[in-house]
Amino acid sequence: MNQSFYTAAVGAWQQQVRLNVHGNNIANVNNFGFKAKRPVFSDLMYDYINGARQDEMPRGTGAYMVSADTDFAPTGFADTGLAMDYAIEGEGFFALWDPATGEYSYSRDGSFTMSQYMLDDGTGNMQTHWYLSDGLGRFVMSRNGQLIEVDPEDLDAEQPVGVFDFVNTNGMLNISENRFQPVEKNGQLRVGSGKVVQRKLEQSNVDLANELSKVIESQRSFTYSLKMIQTSDEIETTVNDLRR
Fold first, then answer.
1. Where are the beta strands (DSSP E) in the chain?
2. Residue 113 buriedness (CB in 10 A; 0-12 / 13-18 / 19+)
3. Among 15-19, 55-59, 77-81, 187-191, the least confident range
4. Burial zone of 104 (CB within 10 Å; 0-12 exposed, 13-18 middle, 19+ buried)
5. Is the pTM of this model over 0.85?
6. Using CA atoms, how far apart are residues 140 and 130, in angstroms rounded to an integer?
7. Which of 24, 66, 205, 226 is 20 to 30 A removed from 79 (C-alpha atoms)?
């Protein structure tokens, strides 16, 4: 079959994947701390190579979306007036610790609350302490890497929320609730240079106009790929008819 058929089929499939990325960005346009994703494409094959049986595999098999990189570009703040809301002015992340799994994750979303945590007082008795958390079972780390105890009688007090960063943030693993985890290439954890701002939350950095234009662009490319498939099929049909 004409190689253009396969190239077009891959193109249509990958434009659908690209649409999913932009659709997810649009869906999170109003979510605090959300960082937009940017699709990155690469050639699948651009030259002839030797196959397993030493015969050549043809080039021109299209492009593939190799990753959806996170855009950590800064954006504006929303003034919430809530004492437990924090934003980071500059670079860095809030560090969150999950006591159930021991997992650390990092986020730009500073919409915090307080949660109770039972601790042994040293005599075998469990006492309730209140700590700053994300409200989903994860606790916020302070500047010195400790839990941040909150006084229920003084909720307006500014807490010593820590800001942490990595040498390289490209390729960080995006997990649930706007959280990230580092991979090997991100390097060691370090103290961030960003400044904590109380009673504000960082807005999403999704550019709605840009995302909508990319959606239209992907839809057009998808349509052209389908048209290419149709044309390739018609060519093959004509060739087969001539052979009869």
1. 37-43, 49-50, 56-57, 63-70, 77-79, 86-89, 94-98, 103-107, 113-120, 126-133, 139-140, 164-166, 173-175, 179-181, 189-191, 195-198, 200-202
2. middle
3. 55-59
4. middle
5. no
6. 12
7. 24
